[in-house]
Specification:
alpha+beta
Amino acid sequence: MKQKYTRKAKIQPEKPVETEQIEDLSGLPDRNLFRLVEVADYLQVSLSTIRLWKDHGYFQIEKFRGTVWITRESILKFRLKNRVQP
């Protein structure tokens, strides 16, 4: 018996994130760069999870003298993008 295949839905392009939405999610201190440990505490996940997400490109990072920093905007965009709507 053959399987019946259905057409997959088209993937919609990402909508640009509005600044007002980003500011509403903010519980972060008023800084532009955060260390991995700080991001893990903010998102309430383990440090290894943050490293994995960083390696997969979910965050914009900056390196300075061997320390990896994650930008505030990328943290808030990540949180907004992955928010569950009730």
